[in-house]
Amino acid sequence: MVVRHSIVSDAMTAGRTILMGGRVFTADAENPWADAVVVEADRIVFVGDAERAAAMAGEDARTIEVDGGLVLPGFVDGHVHVTLTGSSMLKAYLRDAGSVEEIQRRVAEWAAGHPDEPRVLGTDWVHSDLPDNKPTKEMLDAVVTDRPVYLEAFDFHSCWVNSAALRELGIDDDTPDPVGGTIARDPETGEATGHLLESASFELVQPLLADVDDEVRDGYVTTALAAFARAGITSVVEMALEENALESIARLQAAGKLTARVVAHMIIWRKGDMSQELEMVRRAAELAREYRGDLLRVGGVKIISDGSIDACTAALSRPYTNGSSADPIWEPAALDPVVEAADALDLQIAVHAVGDQAIRNTVDAMERAMRINGTSGKRHRIEHLEYARTEDIERMGKLGITASMQPVHMDPAYLQNWIAMVGPERANHGFAWPLHVAAGSVLAFGTDAPTTPHWSLPNMYIASTRKSPVDDSLPALRPDWALPLEEAIQHGTRESAWAAWLDHATGVLKPGLAADIVVLNRNFFAEGPASLLKTDVRLTMMNGKVVHSA
Q: E strands, 179-277, where?
């Protein structure tokens, strides 16, 4: 790709800019393909053939020569965690460890490389790397005894800690489980094992690790935003934001350093006290009135109704294959009034629901709230939807509930334990993207970073093949449910923008909308889905400003 006139990082405020020399996929149903795009300041002013674009741009226009590559709308990541993504990039990475021994080696290496850190931190360990999927404090005590060790699971729904961390948290054999959480214990002795699940992790560990100064937290956000720009992501939907992280994002916006649009959903933690939970909803409504900008907006609330299938904490209607079962974090008696209150306050509701029982409870709650409040069209969303019953998928479509899903969660490289826990029959109905579309729901794609990699193009590869981007030899789960490549891109751009109430601004390349544009070095539509894994993001533009250039 040739970039003329040294367009690197400055906002294009003078004159016009033309992107040409390759193919343009607009994701606009009325005009899906073009040859050139013309930008003026922060807006797209023309999309069409190269000759008319050149005339529109004028002789003095800056030119970005795409050089046979591809131009797309900026990706709209429909589900991420901004500060967690930034902080996770600074921890020991355990996703591909493969064994307890390798996890121990990486933890010891990180500890040795960070001798002045008060805690040893790691992220993304996978349950199937451990005997019986169960981590223990002894495994970590074997390599680190002088400092607390905190290792977040890849799904971020549990934390694995050593003995020093249990002491720091004040957890002993008599500490009661928090509402909606579990402190794993030895079945014979009752001793805490070092595995903290759901609210035991959210309520005890996360506040401790998030207790950093503003400069550090701002650094987490900056690190994440830079990573998103490199991946071609120009908008993100932050799921589970706390107020201190919101303030960090607002500071970056005020300083002109926000390189992606952020739509935030404030987290409503399960407290076991309805008055506290409803107060969090009211506070979210106040923040939604305060933060209503084009680049930063509080859009609604996030509720985590169950856990994950890998940890056997997702709420299923039938037990797991190992005989265990899990109750919802939010049972209907608690979920219904919170959803009703949020809907009445005009907040968009996003509910994490992985298992079919949690999904049914959530659809019931949203339907109930709409009936009581006389509302519709709020674009309420259910996040993840890994195993849903057909009748609930159809109900979602009729109610206008968005299906917010993450293709990367079904990467076959990390799906073996998932399949084993639900069994082949239920697994065969997992991640049912086409059924949601057929039922009439908007299907919005994201990555759920940092629970999974944030890279947009491998995510689109999984969407269009249901195969693993890291191991082609692994069989795909329901390859017949893979999506046509154009549809996959639309779900990661146009549909995700609609689901986040960003369709007035971005998601397609169309005159009048924001210049949120990605330039790729090859045309994967012509070469096929496999070429997605060989494609590089050469340039990312957000609001007319180049925020990444290779």
A: 181-185, 192-198, 233-241, 261-267
CA distance 127 to 294: 40
Start-to-end CA span in the chain (Å): 9
Contact between residue 199 and residue 207 where contact means Cβ atoms under 8 Å apart: no
pLDDT of res. 8:
38
Which pair of structure tokens corresponds to residue 359?
């999904």
Structure tokens at 406: 């993450």
Closest CA to 306 of 203, 401, 180: 180
Neighbours of 399 (CB within 10 A): 15
173 — pLDDT class (breaks 50, 70, 90): confident
d(CA 98, CA 108) in angstroms, rounded, equals 16
Cα–Cα distance, 525 to 507 (Å, whole number): 18
Residue 491 in tokens: 């779900």
| CA–CA separation, 189 and 173 (whole Å) | 9
Hey, what amino acid is at 372?
Answer: I
115 preceded by cis ω (within 30°)?
A: no
Question: Which residue is associated with the tokens 């789960």?
Answer: 477
**Neighbour count for residue 425 (Cβ, 10 Å):** 7
Measured at the alpha carbon of residue 157, what is the angle toward residues 155 and 162, in degrees to the nearest 5?
105
Average pLDDT estimate for 320-348:
97
- What is the distance between the alpha carbons of residues 104 and 94, in angstroms, rounded to a whole number? 10
Whether 220 and 83 have beta carbons less than 8 Å apart is answered as: yes
Strand duo 33-40 + 43-48: pairing: antiparallel
Which residue's entry shows tokens 């830079």? 226
Tokens 């590869």 belong to which residue? 461
Report the SS3 class of residue 158: strand
CB 214 within 8 A of CB 248: yes
Q: Which residues make Cβ contacts (< 8 Å) with residue 47, sequence separation at least 6?
A: 24, 26, 28, 31, 34, 36, 37, 38, 509, 510, 511
Least confident interval from 119-128, 276-285, 362-371, 384-393 = 119-128
Cα 364 to Cα 377, 437, 514: the distances in Å are: 16, 20, 37
Residue 13 above 70 pLDDT? no
Is residue 451 a contact partner of residue 154, using CB atoms and an 8 Å limit? yes
Both tokens of 122, joined, read: 């790691």
- 233: three-class secondary structure by DSSP: strand
The amino acid that residue 215 corresponds to is: E
Q: Is the pLDDT of residue 7 over 60?
A: no
Tell me if residue 444 falls in helix, strand or coil: strand
